[in-house]
Write a structure and sequence with these properties.
Largest sheet: none
Number of helices: 7
Distance between the termini: 13 Å
Number of strands: 0
Oligomer: single chain
Shape: elongated
Helix content: over 70%
Amino acid sequence: MYGILGLIMLVGASSGLGFYFSGMLKERVNKLREAVLFLRTVERELQYSLDLTDKIIEKIDAEGRFRGLKAVSECTVLCRKGEIFPKAWEKSVAAAKREMKLTDAEARVFSQLSTALGKYDAQSQVKAIEEIALRMEGFVGEAEKKYEEKGTLYRTLGTLLGAGMAILLI
């Protein structure tokens, strides 16, 4: 009886690991999508608002739509403390990189928002943000492809590995 329960737990644990790693890939895709949506929101705000950069970010943060992007709330806090937007944004992205599941390349591109905002006329800023968003969308596509390829693999291998160990132990 205990042997069967142990085997079931073994299969369940290995399956759970497979689903965990697959879920991590899916979460990364979702974080990247959220980053692109944030950039598109900033782009739209710039087109229709005359607010300063830090006020735009603060307004978007106050709406609460991007709670998964720690860099947004972190940037708001730093700007309120008197940090200028470009430095605040770079620090925020660097600090939130791991939590947002960004690679070094993705973090570099996402932090380019600091150089795109506040230095040029609104039309140039919108164009720069659009370019950043397009590059981030490319990262989303890569992450989705990786999830499609490896997510199923992780789930299947976890389950099969557990079943294989259970068979060997019988």
